[in-house]
Every structure is written in structure tokens, then in C-alpha cells.
Amino acid sequence: MNWLEGLISVQSALRSPYRDVEAIYLRKGVGKRHQWRFNALKKTAVSQNIPVQKKDDAFFEEHASGSSHGGVLAKVGERHFLSLSELLEQDERPFIVMMDGVEDPFNFGQAIRSLYAAGVTGLVVRPRNWTTATAVVARASAGASELIPLAIAETTEDAADYFQSKGLIVACTDKEKAVDLYEVDLTQSMFVLIGGEKRGITRSFLNRAQLRFKIPYKRPFDYALGTTSSAAILAFERMRQLNL
What we know:
244 residues; alpha/beta; CATH 3.30.1330.30; Alpha/beta knot; seven-stranded parallel β-sheet; 11 strands; elongated
């Protein structure tokens, strides 16, 4: 069992087809100012036949990772992943992102927040990834990690080979031999790899990539943006192009 913390995370899990919610726990003694939110959550849970119980502070101290739970906890099952082929079925022009080498669960969640908000089709992760840090990722993503379609690939190269065989353009962020992001047609079906802050993107993947693009800077600056910033810029530029 895993735990989700906070009203937004739990509400997202109740909306999501990718996670089974086993039980919801509300802290005793919550003031009337917040009670209406609890009542709405309880109503949704009851409609899905999910038990709701009130618990004391000791219960929350035992099961919550911190103090930002706001009096709401949920016991949940493992995250359900799609296959790579099922990920393609989510959109007529799929735009799929893979993040590799992200070393902080908060950054991972923040990046998912931007990708989901901007309408990215889905996310590919490796078997060892930060989705195991359920509570942190859900809070950092404002619940988006519970809602975005996820699939697993053993390696970035495996994912690239599969999506290229299905007609997607394989792309990545890079500084060498790269074109300006704002000159790229992001409305095409595409699989994009965003590397982590320290390791970046492997040479083997760069050799596979059909397209490399870079995010232009206003000032001279030698260092790459972090994963969260890069993901947000990429996703919202695609959304802008789609809305033209």
C-alpha cells in the first residue's frame, strides 16, 4: 500500500482510472471553515464505495510524511501503467515525453504538473522512477501525477526505437547541432526525451535522435535549464502552436 496526502492529491486519485483508492482518512477536530471540503470529498468517496474514517493526530503522525497533509490521507494501491501502444492511442497526434535522470521527486512532480497542464499526451518512465515516492510526487504535481497517462520502458533507446517504428519523430533537448525550439513544428507526432540536471542525455540516444532542439537564452549563459523549466517551456510552446 501507498499513501497520498492532502485534499488535492486525494481528489485527483478519486478522478483517476490509474489508481485504486482503498480508504480515506480525515483528521478529527477540523474546524468548520474546512469542513465543507471534507464533506465534498466524503460524498465522492461514498459514491465510489470507498470507506471514509476519522482518525486522531497520532494516526496522521504515523502515516504522513510531513505536516502538509491538511488533515486528509488516503491508502492507495500501486499506480497502473499503460503499455507504450496504449499510450499512442490517447491522441491522434501523440506528443509523448520521457524524463530520464531526474534525481529529485519534487522536481519530477513539478515537471509532470507542467506537462499535464499543457496537454502532453503521456509520459514514459524507466522501471526505477520517482512514482514510488507517491505522496511527494502527487503533492508537487498538484495531483497531475495521478491523472497523466504513464508507461514504462526499460531504456530510453527502447522507447525511441518503438515510437520511431510507429512514425513518431524522435527528439531531444541538446545544445550541440540543435535548432531553436521556436523554429520546430511541435504539432507533429513526436517522442521527446528530457534529460536530468546532472547526467543529461546519453550519446547513444543523441545518435538516435532525428531532431535536436535548444531553448534560446536572452543573455550569454553556459548552463542548461533544469528539467522542470525545460518541461514547462516545451509543453506550453507546443500548446501555443496547437492553438494558433
